[in-house]
Specification:
CATH superfamily: CNF1/YfiH-like putative cysteine hydrolases
Shape: globular
CATH topology: CNF1/YfiH-like putative cysteine hydrolases
Number of strands: 14
Structural class: alpha+beta
Strand order of the largest sheet: 4-5-8-7-9-13
Number of helices: 7
Order of helices and strands: EHEHEEEEEEHHEEHEEHEHE
Radius of gyration: 17 Å
């Protein structure tokens, strides 16, 4: 089994599920992708990404062909699965759930929220990619609904937010703020003024936490790790953009029922 540096959650350890929030360390990719890039959608060498994901699967205790990561589209769509899919069958969605033993679920991120879900009593797990758009449009609710269809109960679901861009690193423009205010005046609490006129700093982790509180899940843990600020461990789309780099790697959060 490959020894990768990973971040674990006390909630998911208590639930007894195999899981990992992988860092960017321990893989074979090079350049801006160095080194554990899990993003099939990046312009990295496909063989390197495949080897990186094989190492992740090893860490979860499953085989690579049982490690399922959807084609993410910043949507509010989620699916429930009972078996592996082929590359041609890979669903376009941002949430996935299963009750199948030996099947691993993963989502990628590089500033967006990467969430893992588990109902240990029902034996149901889930994963979701929640950028601002997915979180705003309802991907968290959709993932919970797919889990419920498999027998989970919200009151028993533990949810963990992995490395995500923090408020201090996330400046947004006035149109962004207006969208959130129009949806709910209470969303004002997720913004603080930016040093730049007419801009604000957005607290994506707090917004995600509020959606989970509204959904009445059993427990929530925010690992409080800022992708933008910690270059040694995490990729960041925004950091790459600020530097004018041509691409970036993707982190993976993964969970499995073993």
């Amino acid at each position: 089994m490959s020894a990768l540096p990973v971040i674990r959650s006390r909630l998911l350890e208590a639930a007894g599920v195999s899981h990992a929030f992988f860092t960017r360390q321990g893989g074979v990719s090079t350049g801006v992708y160095a080194s554990l890039n899990g993003g099939a959608g990046s312009r990295d060498d496909a063989a390197a990404v495949a080897e990186n994901k094989r190492r992740m699967a090893d860490t979860l205790g499953i085989t690579a062909d049982r490690f399922m990561v959807p084609y993410q589209i910043h949507s509010a769509d989620a699916v429930a699965i009972a078996a592996s899919w082929s590359e041609a069958e890979r669903p376009r969605c941002d949430g996935v759930a299963t009750a199948t033993t030996g099947l691993g679920l993963g989502v990628t991120g590089a500033d967006c929220g990467i969430l893992l879900f588990a109902d240990a009593r029902a034996g149901v797990i889930g994963a979701a990619h929640a950028g601002w758009k997915g979180a705003f449009d309802g991907v968290i609710e959709a993932t919970l609904q797919r889990m419920e269809e498999l027998g989970a109960k919200r009151a028993n679901v533990s949810v963990v937010l992995g490395p995500t861009i923090a408020q201090a690193s996330y400046e947004v423009g006035p149109e962004f703020v207006a969208r959130f205010r129009a949806a709910d005046a209470g969303n004002e609490r997720f913004f603080v003024p930016s040093p730049r006129a007419d801009h604000a700093m957005f607290d994506l982790p707090a917004f995600i936490g509020a959606q989970l509180d509204k959904a009445h899940v059993g427990a929530f843990e925010n690992l409080a790790l800022d992708t933008y600020a910690d270059e040694e461990r995490f990729y960041s789309y925004r950091r790459t953009t600020h530097r004018g780099e041509n691409d970036y790697g993707r982190l993976i959060a993964a969970i499995a029922l073993n």
